[in-house]
Amino acid sequence: MKIYRDFPFQVTNRPRAIALGFFDGVHLGHQKLIKELIAISHSRDLIPTVFTFGDHPNSNFNDHFRFSGLIQKAEGRLARIAELNVQETILAPMIDQVKMISATDFFHKYLLKDFGMQALIVGKDARFGHNGQGNVELLEQWTKQTGIDLLVVGDVKIGKCKISSTLIREFIEQGNIKQANQCLGYAYRIQGEVVHGKKLGRTLGFPTLNIIFDADLVKPRFGVYASQVKLQNQTLPAITSIGTNPTVSKDNQIKVETYIYNKNIDLYNKKVTVVLLDFVRDEMIFKSVDAMKKRIFSDLNTVRKMHEQKEF
């Protein structure tokens, strides 16, 4: 997938179908929209293109947007989008020049003139342009005037709940990982480089992979999770603790500590993907390291059974 990251956008004027959105999480609703993009592109011989933004939604159009962190960083979003057979993505930087583009200029100058748009696919709550002044009502007027095909994709629901990035963030914050994964259409994951910790886990008999949690991401509920570690062509069962580990640490730094319990691998300085499957218990403060060790082994037995019974 070709990615355009710089402004002014150096995009060749070729016939495109464009899907517009932030796509945080690339959840089932986003996937439905992108599948429509691919279908329209194939039927009309257009280049399937996503227009999205590189920075936080709260740096976008609405100062009152409830934002607790990203589900994914930009590179994670791009990887998921590429998996859906999108050929090009325009990843607009949220710099002042971009944020000040009016809704009219965004549609007529960029999408229509510079990008060669012939079809546009959006969600029904789409907003664009300076201060989010552009909406679906305006798009319906402008596409009708210019002869552009407009497809407004409806919500995707699980039960009575509309799937949205906001709902998924709330599930992650609450520790409702199974519900978050259901809405995402895949298992929520945390990626990072394995760093050296205090090696307390090693002395207790379960050496952990330690990842520094990215402050830009939504914070999962602190506690213990059944998890997996993905390494190239391997998927290994694991147990993960997320939190500040208050029993032995006072720095308040959020840590992601994962123990692969059936394999010993040296992964220091390597990037790994930790997949969260289910919440087990809240983070606790223990009276002693021995008490903590006893509880961790109990948690490990619980997680082993969850993996063996394929409860996810």
Write the layout of secondary structure elements.
Layout: E1 2-4, E2 16-20, H1 28-44, E3 47-53, H2 74-83, E4 88-92, H3 96-99, H4 103-114, E5 117-123, H5 136-146, E6 149-153, E7 157-158, E8 161-162, H6 165-174, H7 177-184, E9 189-195, H8 200-204, E10 209-212, E11 223-231, E12 234-243, E13 255-260, E14 271-282, H9 289-308
Parallel strand pairs: 1-4, 2-3, 2-5, 3-4, 5-6
Antiparallel strand pairs: 7-8, 9-10, 9-14, 10-13, 11-12, 11-14, 12-13
- Ends: how far apart? 32 Å
Q: Would you count the extended β strands for me?
A: 14
Strand line-up in the sheet with most strands: 1-4-3-2-5-6
Strand share of the residues? Answer: 25-35%
How many DSSP H or I helices? 9
The domain count comes to 2
The percent of residues in helical segments reads 25-40%
User: Order of SSEs, N→C?
Assistant: EEHEHEHHEHEEEHHEHEEEEEH
Q: What is the molecular shape? A: elongated
Overview of the structural elements:
The protein has 312 residues and is of the alpha/beta class. It folds into two domains: 2-157, Rossmann fold; 187-308, Beta Barrel (Elongation Factor Tu (Ef-tu), domain 3), CATH 2.40.30. It contains nine helices and 14 strands. Strands 1-4-3-2-5-6 form a six-stranded parallel β-sheet, sandwiched between helices. Strands 9-10-13-12-11-14 form a six-stranded antiparallel beta barrel. The longest helix has 20 residues, at 289-308. The protein is elongated, with a radius of gyration of 22 Å.
